[in-house]
Amino acid sequence: MLSSVSKIGAFAPFASATCQNVATQLRPAVYVAQSVINEKLPERSEKLTSQSMSTAMLPKGLTKVTSGIHSTSQVRFAHTDYQVPDFSNYRKDSTANPYQTAEPSAPNRKSFSYLFAGGGAVVAAYTAKVLVQEFVGSMNASADVLALAKIEVNLNEIPEGKNLVMKWRGKPLFVRHRTQEEIDTELAVDVASLRDPQHDTERATKPDWLVLIGVCTHLGCVPIANSGDYGGYYCPCHGSHYDASGRIRKGPAPLNLEVPEHSFVSEDLLVVG
């Protein structure tokens, strides 16, 4: 059995090798003298310190470090040979001198930066506002839809005791000019006896005028005005009877006729919607 030890670097020439012969049943042991290479290191006359090692090991001039097989690298201790770029062409006049403080000109330079940033923020905010308005405006109703949203009714064209029927938002609209007898009759009705209790003053903001949606609350039929057992409205489909205030008095309808949002702009002009 042969074993060897070798040291790299400066101690590579100093190696130690041993050889050992082991006897087996087939071959007797034969003694072989061991050969040892033994050389003493040169004695050093001074102690190994960082100063002494740097003086003895590092040569004068450019230092080179060798590591591995045929690989060299350089170690630099100073960078005095580098050329620093000159940015004089890019500097402002107030900061061109590197040996002079730029603190006195700082407010002016900051003012320009703040003004530029503020102007950009205002432009961005205005642009965002316009975009949001355009987006929200695109979801609004068109002009033709808005035109149908409200309707004006000339009250002078409706005689007393008559009911005007017109189309509003795809539904029939009833505008009734009530007589004093109809007003007194509806005011005298006992609200507790009604299926859908509502007082006449809650349904007619002006006693002379009654505004209703002409759709029966049972199955959506259109009632007939000035007919029925109570002299108001009558739905011939299933026999629902409404009084002159649009309240259900008889039949299968569960609720009173709907009163739309309306206002009297003047004595002779009604706006519905």
Textual characterization of the structure:
The protein is of the alpha+beta class. The chain is built from 5 helices and 14 strands. The longest helix has 33 residues, at 106-138. The termini are far apart. Residues 1-12 and 31-36 have low confidence and may be disordered.
End-to-end gap: 113 Å
Sheet with most strands: 4 strands, antiparallel
Indicate the structural class: alpha+beta
* Mean pLDDT over the residues: 77
Query: Rg to the nearest angstrom?
Result: 55 Å
Strand order of the largest sheet: 9-10-11-12
How many E strands?
Answer: 14
What are the low-pLDDT stretches, counting only 5+ consecutive residues below 50?
Answer: 1-12, 31-36
Q: Beta-sheet strand percentage? A: 15-25%
N-to-C SSE string, H for helix and E for strand: EEHEEHHEEEHHEEEEEEE
Tell me roughly what share of residues is in helical segments. Answer: 10-25%
The gross shape turns out to be rod-shaped
Q: How many individual helices?
A: 5
